[in-house]
Amino acid sequence: MATPDFQDAPPESATLTAYDEGHLASYIRLLDAAEEGADWQEAVLIIFGVDPALEQARAKAIYDSHLARARWMTECGYRQLLRPPSA
Model's pTM, two decimal places? Predict the structure, then answer.
């Protein structure tokens, strides 16, 4: 199942974005796939619905940028998820 309304690259931000919050499941799936050594082409097809055979450069850019953001979430972004909402 493809992720609806994804961008070719997640927004670059030092803070958690609405895009990040909306794509947490995709980030987790990417991290799991990378950890298991899954082929990036299969991962981008399954997670984002982009066929690397038809759009190799775009598919690779989507995969790389979202995996990088997913890794950022494990290092920094998750802390912002744990903060209580400001009043």
Answer: 0.85
